[in-house]
Write a structure and sequence with these properties.
The protein has 5 helices and 6 strands. It is α/β, with parallel strands linked by helices and 137 residues long. It is globular.
Length: 137
């Protein structure tokens, strides 16, 4: 089986830990970063199949996750980029898509649901015009 690698970028350690443990149990190699600088450094040296980035990674910049999204798409165009945030509305979702995210989901999200959505990305993006996710109605 081909190795799948994921980068989780979130300033909250419990979230990184939960995602790492869950996806490692699913057979993924998982790296983590708490800030944009660390994430961008990892993107420069390792290949990722999926990058999951929180929106608010820095208390001084409540939209620093967009930088990670841009860098991931620029550095690794074949990587699926997911924005996962507790602070989203329609304008944030559309900006995430404009910045290069393939998918946008709101926290909290069950890890099994997140796994299903990530597994569905290649097929879903073909029929969804390049984006997946949305806001609750």
């Amino acid at each position: 089986m081909e190795e799948r690698r994921m980068l989780i970028v979130d300033d909250e350690k419990p979230i990184r830990l939960a995602v790492r443990q869950y996806f490692r149990a699913q057979g993924w190699e998982v790296d983590e970063a708490a800030d944009p600088e660390t994430a961008i450094g990892l993107l420069g040296v390792l290949h990722y199949d999926v990058v999951i980035a929180d929106l608010r990674l820095d208390p001084r910049d409540d939209q620093s996750g967009f930088r990670v999204v841009r860098e991931a798409r620029d550095a690794q165009p074949d990587c699926f980029v997911v924005m996962l945030t507790a602070y989203g509305d329609e304008s944030v979702m559309h900006r995430a898509w404009d910045e290069g995210a393939h998918a946008f989901f709101l926290k909290p999200i069950a890890l099994d649901r997140l796994s299903q959505l990530i597994s569905a990305l290649p097929e879903a993006l073909g029929s969804a015009g390049g984006h997946l996710g949305g806001l609750p109605s």
